[in-house]
Amino acid sequence: MRDDRLEAKREAEQLDEPAAEARNLAERLGLDPYPVRYWVVDHDEMNELIAYGGFQQRYPHWRWGMNYDRQRKKDRHGLGKAFEIVNNDDPSHAFLQESNTMADQKAVITHVEGHADFFANNDWFGLYADRGEDGPNAVARLGRNADRLAEIGRRADVDREAVERLIDAVSALEDTIDQHSPVNAARDGDAIEPTSDGDDPREELQAKIDELDLSEEVQGDVFDEEWLTSQDGGVEPDKPRPDVLAFLRDHGKRYDSETGKAVDREPWETTVIDAIREEAYYFAGQKVTKVMNEGWATYWESIMMGGEGFAGSDEFLTYADHMSRVLGSPGLNPYKLGFELWTHVELQAARRDVVDKLLRVDGVTPENFHAKIDIDEVADTLQPHPAIEGAGPAMLDELAELAADGDPRVDAEIVDRALSIREGDTDAADGPDIEAYPWKLLTYEGLAERHYVLSRPQHRNALRNLSRSTLEERARYMFDVDRYETVAEALADVDRTAGWSRMYEVRESHNDVTFLDEFLTDEFVRERNYFTYEYSQAGDEFRVASTDAAAVKRKLLLQFTNFGKPTIVVLDGNFKNRGELLLGHQYNGVALDEQQATATLKRVFELWGRPVSLATIQTEYDDKELRRAQRQNREPAGTEVGVRLQYDGGDVTEHELDDTIKSRIEADEVDYDTKPDEWLS
């Protein structure tokens, strides 16, 4: 064990310089990340961290062991090596696997810097509470929850199995929070209070019965315990309430199997619900920004490792293999999709800036744009200045000339120090290592020019492919000011930071749904050959369904809306006036998995204590229609039918759904705009 620790310590010491320089480069590129604490761990420790969701301490529960066993098997059989894991916290904690090569470690560190920037600057992470001056402090919060729940499990008056069952029930519903609101919103004013003055509704009801001055016999006959219990859940939301877990916490009870009735929860039970719900909000930020976050980190990793040579010449092939494995993973790959979308955001902004300049050249109009503008000449002009592109020891004199003219692209102080070292006036140990880190010679503006998206070979034709309608749309919103006499004058005014500036704006306010909705354009889908596929009822197989951009967008949005899970809301807390909870599946054309719905309904019952119903819509197919569709090689026409699944502690039963309720849960058009109004930009 001691040898293992010494090895990890030596590995960590070797990473001190790369970690420090990666942070310096990240900040020079415009990133503003949380501080990051790096830890080197072995295979087993990494598997434990992955099992715990990136933390070293979690509350006692069997699922952590299951997660650990699954990850250990994947690691052993080469089905998914974990290079790193990083959590959203201030400071962030990143764990690096000690078996990584140095190239892998550098790639991981630059990737982590991107994540830490996204954590610190994306507003969706701000919805997690406990985010004051000291940041989110998730390690402390999750640690307190772990200690609190462990202590509950050790109490002599608490059944350990009851704690496990409650955690199971709450965990099954952890995605039924309202991820668009802060964790405490339900208690800060959005909660549906039982009464206007905050009194317990049952106590208020009992007081009214007492005012009737009935005898105990008559009162017990008419207003018996069963009737009182049925009225206890009489909380009817004015509109569907998305935070199911908060509703269950506020108004739910516990089913007592001995008496067959709902009883009030013990205080420790509410503590368990609050702890797990709170943690669900912490992880929600990561779930709703998976594509953005991974794409953002991958983009800046590629800029630092490949574009700025953070991977040394002897490490580059290893890094290229590392990146190809990350981007080449099969299925819906958030790294690849996110990386390509961020590059598309950058390209759109840079191209818009250039087009706006060129359309202001005298004599240039949308109609004659391609005739008047020499695209190849524009592409050549937009290439970075040779001294900026090749910044390093060999270009010191050229950079010094630019610095002498006050060029904002060059760090004049660093250039001056580097020249002093070259001429022997300063000890090399006291100066910047521009051999290993040539980027130190450039400012943010210089780096933006060096990595300007329109100067990359793969985007050389980005202006050539612009349609006349696109040019007309841009011209429509331009004022007749800031005119240029020549194309050269216009291009001299191009903002090389436009792409990155737009990326930083988008990074602040979007989540995956809004990100895909805004930037998954026809052009993006067409150029990258995206398509949709679906299961064919007629052919009993999966088939390509469409290459249409709208269809691709719809399919992706459905996968990312509400964590990719069905959206369930509270419709009625006193359904049929008997204290029954009615939940509604907000149907968007995708049916529920009935087996999972049935299992989840049973978990809800444990937190409500009384009968529970779930309204949903299913598509039914007539046998004759199915056979006819198979013969004609087409999809069968189904009929959408409203169904209410009910559970009262026995078997789950299926009932016909009232048309009024059916109309409340079906959507004529799916609304994917989940961005709060104040974040619209």
UniProtKB/TrEMBL annotation:
Residues 11-350, 497-563 form the SpoVR protein-like N-terminal domain. Residues 566-618 form the SpoVR-like C-terminal domain. PANTHER family: STAGE V SPORULATION PROTEIN R. Pfam families: SpoVR (PF04293), SpoVR_C (PF24755). Residues 183-202 are annotated as: Disordered. It comes from the Archaea. This is AbrB family transcriptional regulator.
